[in-house]
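2 proteins. here.
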Amino acid sequence: MGRSRAFFAIICSVNRHAPQLLGYALAAYEKHSALVVGDRGISSQCGVQQGDPLGPLLFSLVMHDVVVPPNPGEQPPVPAAPASSQAPVESAPASLGQPEPLDAAGGRPTPPEPAQAPGSGDPAVPPPPPVGSPAAPRATDGALSQAGLDLLTFFLDDGAAGGELDTLGHWLQGFEDRAAAVGLSLNRGKCRLSVAPGATIPEALQGIETFPLDDIQHLGVPCGSPETMRAFVEEAAKSAERKMRMIASLPDAHVALTLLKFCAGFVSVVHLMRAVGAVFDFACIDQATQSCLATITGIETDASAWALASLPVRLGGLGLHSCADTAAIAHIAATFDGEACLPSLVTPYVLPHAMLLDEDDTFLASLEDPRLAPFESVLEKIQNVLQARDNYGGRGQKVWSATVHDERRKALLISMTEELGRSGRLQGSALALKQVQVRARIQSCSAQHASAWLYGNAEADPRLWLSPAELAVAIRLRLGLPIAPMPSICRLCGTGSADVDGVHARSCFSGGRRTRMHNALRDVIADFARRGLLAPAVERPVFSNTERKRPDISYVRDGTTVVLDVAVTFPLQPSNPQYAKRAAEKPGGAATAYATAVKEGKYRGIIDNEPNPREWLAVPLVVDTFGAWCPGALTELRQIARKSALREDRTASAACQDFFHQLSFQVAQGVARIVIASGGARPDEAVHPVAGG
C-alpha cells in the first residue's frame, strides 16, 4: 500500500466506521516513524505499522470498503487526494509497498479534513453513522445482495467468495479495481478456485489455479468432502510430528518441554480439530506427543502416567491435552459457534441448507464419536445446546472440555487405586495408605501456584530453568513413576534405603540440602518484601521477652509486626500418615496440617507475652514438596507481591506470577536435587548429572 494512498484510505475508513479513533489514526500515521537498525535509521512510510495494536483493525476498516461494493450513488471509499499529491503509484504488492510520493514543493500531502455533521458543509465525504447502529454495516452486510454472491467472508487479507462463475468473475474484477484505488493488489498466484467438473472458467478468473469442488480450503482448514479432509489432515499431522521431533532434539530439556506444550501437539492442530472433528483420528498426534515427551525427559510413560500427563496442569497433569479425546467436542462447539455468523456470510437461499446439522456428515460423526460415550453429563449438555441453540456464549468447547477433564481425573484416580489392589504387592493398611498417597500427590500438584515451575517464565532469570536431570526427576515424582530401577543405600544419611519412589529421600534430613531449599525460599520472600519497601529483617531477634526465637523474616506492615516462619513438609511421609489423609482431602491439606500442629504453637506463647500482642502477627509459610501452600501463606505472599508491584510499576497479577514462579521453582529444584544426591535417581543416558552438584 503506497504511503499517500494508504494514509488517505486509513483516515477515510476510520472516519466512516470508527470516528472515535480518528485522532489516534492521524497521530499515528500523519508523520513517518523511524526504525533503528544498529546505527542506521529507516523511515517507515507504508501502510499500517507493525507493532501498532490497532494495526489489524485499521487494515480491516480499509479492507471493508474494498470487499463491500459501494451502493449506487455512494461516494468512493477513498477521497481524492490534493492535486499536489497526485503522483503515480507503481503496482503495490499484496499488503504493504511503495514509499510516499512528494508534492511539487517536496513536502508531504495534506490530510483530509474529518467529515462534518449533516448540512454543515462539505458533501464530498458522507458523515459516519453511529458505531453499532443499523446504518453501520458489518463486514459483509449488503455485499452479498449487491454482488449476487452466495458466500462472502474475510479475515484480514484472507477471504472466500462463492457463487456462479460469471457472477464471481464480475465481483473479482470490481474487487481488484477497488483494491487498486487504495494501493492494494491481489496476488492471483496465492488464490484457489474450486469448481465442478467440466465447468467453463470465464476470462475474469483465468490465471487462478483450479481444484475440484470437494477440495475447498479456507483459512488453513479443509471444508470439502471427508476424503479430502482426511488427506489434508494427514499432511498436517506429518508436519506436526516433524515439528515435535525438532523440538525433542533441543539440548535444553526444560525449554523443549515448554515448546512442546505451547507450540506443538494439541495447540498446533486445534484449528483442524474444530474443522473436521471425528472424521480424522487424531491419535497419531497424541502418540507423537508422548514420544516427544519420552525423548525430552527420558521417561517412558505407561497408560496411567500418560493419562495423567494429558490432564490440565490445574488437575495435576502436564497439560499435554489429548487430541483424540477433544476433536469431537472441538468440532461440535465450532459448529454451534459458526451458526450465529452464517446469516452474515451466506445468502438467505443458502442459509437453510447450511444450518441442516442433521444432514452434516462431519457433525454427525463427531456427535456419535464413541470417545464421548462415557461422559454422559457432556452429552446431556450438548443435547441441551442442540435444542436451545445457546452455546454458552461461544464457550462451549471450554465448558465441555473442562467437564471431560474433571470426569477423566475421577476415573483415573479410581483406576489407579484399583490397580494397586490388583497388583498384589501391598495388602491391608499398607495398601490403604498407598491409595491415599496417590490421591494426596495429585491433589497437591493441583494446588494453586504449585505448578508454576513447570513451564518456566520467558521473562524470568535464565537460571530459573531446571537441568535435564532435575526435570526428569521432577516429572517422575509428579506422575508417580519410579525414579530408579532398584533401591539403594541413601548417600545422605548412609543408613536408610533410598527407595525407587523417592519417599526416603524426601524425608531424610541429612546432608543439609533441605536447609538449602529452606534458605532459598526464605531469600526469595525477603527479596520481594525488600522490593516492596517492607524493610524485612532476616533471622534477627525481634521479641522483647526472648532472643532465642528468631523468625525467618520479620517486618512492620501497617503498624503490625509480621513474623514469617518458612517450612517445607513432605505429605507422603510414612511416619505421619495423617498428613497424606489431609492432603488427599484438599490441595494444601498437608501444609495446613503442619502449620496448625507445629508452627502456630511455636510463636503463640511468645506473642501473648509481648506488651501489645494485638500488634503482632505470626504467619507460618508452609509448603509441601509438591508445591502446595497452606491458605495463610498464600494470603501473606500475595500481600508481599502486591507491595512490590506498587513500587515497580507493574500489575499485581504480573508480580504474583513472577513471585510464585520463583518460589515454585525453588521447591521443585530443591526436591529434585535432594533425590539425586540421595542416590535414589542415578544419572544415566536418560538423566544427566546436575552441574555443580
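next one coming up
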Amino acid sequence: MEEVQDCVVKLRSNPKRRRDKVYVGCGAGFAGDRPMAALKLLQRVKELNYLVLECLAERTLADRYRIMVSGGKGYDPRVKEWMSVLLPLALERKVCIITNMGAMDPLGAQKEVLDLASSLGLEITVAVAYEAPNKTEGSSLLPGESLGVGGGRSTYLGAASIVHCLENYKPHVVITSRVADAALFLAPMIYELGWNWNDTEELAQGTLASHLLECGCQLTGGYFMHPKLLDLSLPYAEVSYGGEVCVGKADGSGGLLSNSTCAEQLLYEVGDPANYITPDLVVDFRDVQFHQISKDRVHCKGAKPSNTCRPEKLLQLSPTEDGWKGWGEISYGGHQCLKRAQAAEYLVRSWIGERYPGIDDKIVSYIMGYDSLKAIGGNKDSDSAKQVMDARLRMDGLFELEEQAVEFVEEFIALYTNGPAGGGGISTGQRKEIILQKVLVDRENIFWLAHAKKASIPYLNQSTGSDMGKTSIVQAHKKLTSHVMGSQYFDASMEMPPSPSPASHGEKIALYHVAHSRAGDKGNDLNFSIIPHFPDDIGCLRKIITPDWVKNALSSLLDLSSFPSDQAIQHRNNLLELVVVEIYDVPGISSLNVVVRNILDGGVNCSRRIDRHGKTLSDLILCQEVILPP
C-alpha cells in the first residue's frame, strides 16, 4: 500500500549526486515512432543511462479514452512491441526506460511488460507513476486503483513521481500516465545529478534539454529540409551537474543536427518564449543560444527561470463528447474535373439541407491536391484550375446529432448515381468525437501514486529464459542489419537549406528564401516560428510579420468551401474577427515566434480539416511573397 501524495512542491531531503553527467536519450517522440530507430540509438550511443519513450499527446489520449470506455486497452497497444525490441539490450546496458505509454491505464501496461519480461526470462522491476483519485488527506490507495480517475480526467504531472520511483525502486522501466513531456526527461536529470526543486538555474537548463529532446528526430533532421534521412538518428542529451547541456546524435549518422534544427525545435509549441510553462518550472527561452561543436553535437545555453518561477495550478484534461463527425471523399479526373467536384459539393450540401435546413456551416469541403492545405491561399486563378486533372473532393462535417452524421454519409454515397459523371473511389465514415476540455487546478487538489513490481521468473526456466533474452537481442540486431543492408538505393535528394546569406531587398520574393519555419498546435491555437537564414534579416522581418499580415496569410483556413459563396465569405470574415495574433521576439536566436489563437477549427480532436494539427501551415506562411525593406 502506498501513500497518496499531492503535487505541492516539497524540497528533496539531502538529494544525492550520483553522477557528474547524465546521458538521456529520446527513443520515441510520438505514438507512431519507430522501435528500430530507438534500438539503433541504444546500440550506437554506449554512454546512455536513460531512454525515454514519449508516446502520448492530446489526440492519442482522447483515442485511448474512447477505446477504453468501449472495452479496449487504455494504454498504448504497442508497449509490448516496443519493449520486446528494447528491453533485452537495455537491461544488458543498464539503461532505464521511462515512458508515458501507460496513458489511461498504466497498471495494465505494467502487467503487459512484466508478462513479456517473464516470457523472455528477464528479471526486471517495473515501476508505475500515475494520477490518483482525489482522496481525503492522510488516506491511502491500494495498488490497482488507477482507473476511472474523475471520468477519465488526466492532469499534466511533473517530474516528482518519476524521481520518487527512481529513488525508491531502482526500476528498469518506469511507466506513467499523463506526465508533461519535458518532465519525462527532466526526472532522471534531477535524480542522477542531485538537483533540488529550488535549483532553478539548473532546472531551467535541464528543461531546455528536455524540450529539445521530446519530439525525437525533429531535432536531428526529421521534418527538416535535408536529404540524408535514411539513417536518421534519434537525439540524446549530455547534462552536467552544473546545468551544462549538449545535445547530440549517433556519430556518423544521417540527418542533420545544427543551430537551425535546434532553433526550430526550441520554438515548437512553446507559446510565449519568455514563459514556457511546465509543471516543474516556468522557463525563459528568449536568450537561448546554440553553438555547433561538432557535426553531431550542439552546445545549448541561456535558459533561465522566468519571473513566475513555478505555476501554482496544473493543467487538467477532461474527455467530453463533442458531437458526431461524418465525412466522405470522391475523385474526379480529366477535363473540367474541378467543376465536377464543385457540382458534387453543391449537390451534397443541397441534399442535406433539405432534411436539416441551416446545417451548411457545419460542413467543410476542399479539393485534395488543389487547396486542401490552403498553400495557395486565395490565389486560385484560372490557370491553376485548368492544370488540375485529378480532383478528390472531401467533405467533413461535425454535427450535434448522430442521425445528422448518418444522413450526411448517405447523401454523399448517393453521388455514385445522382452526381456528376465519372465520380469514383468513394469512401465515407462517421464516429462520435471526444475533445479534451482544459481547466487549471490547484496543486494541492491533484494527487499521484507510485509503486513497483518485479517480473516473475519460473525457477525451472531461468537458464532457458536468459538464453531467450540473448536470442531476442541477436534477432533484433539481425533484423536491423538486414533492413539497412537490403534497402534499395533511392535518390531522395532535396534542395539543401539555403546557406546563410543576406536576402535580396526591394524586390518581391517568397518568404522561404528569407527564413525557415515549423508549425505546431496547442488546442485551437497555432504556433509557428520565423527563423531567418541570415540573422541580420530579423530586423526586416519584424517590420513585415505583423498581426494583420499573419491574419491575411491564414484567412483562407476559415473558408467552408473551395468555392465560397458571398454568404460563406461573410462567415469567414466573422470568424476572422475572433482570431488573435501574438508575436514574440526571441533575440538569442534572432527569430520570431507567432501564436495564432482560434484558427485550428477547434483543435486536433474535432477539426474538420485534413491537417488537424496545422503542421503544414508553416509552408503556407513560407510561400507568402514579401518585399524586404531597404
